[in-house]
Amino acid sequence: MKMVKLRYRTGSHSRWVEVVVSTFVAEELAKEYTGYGWQAEVMAV
């Protein structure tokens, strides 16, 4: 299972939160978070 880093924040003045998860989980969470209006990025570890 390939692991990637998911980075997200709830607003432009919020701190970034970074977690290492599987590629599938990162992509699903990124979709969900952007649906909330948050910023989310998936990147290599």
Give an account of the 3D structure.
Helix content is 29%, strand content 42%. It has 45 residues and is an alpha+beta fold. It has one domain. The chain has a 3-stranded antiparallel beta sheet, with helices on one face. The two termini are 13 Å apart.
Rg, Cα atoms, Å: 10 Å
Specify the structural class: alpha+beta
Please tell me the total number of domains: 1
Per DSSP E runs of 2 or more residues, the count of β-strands stands at: 3
Give unreliable regions as ranges. none
Return the average pLDDT rounded to an integer. 97
Instruction: Quote the beta fraction.
Output: 35-45%
Key features?
45 residues, 3-stranded antiparallel β-sheet, 3 strands
Produce the secondary structure layout.
Blueprint: E1 3-9, E2 17-22, H1 23-35, E3 39-44
Antiparallel strand pairs: 1-2, 1-3
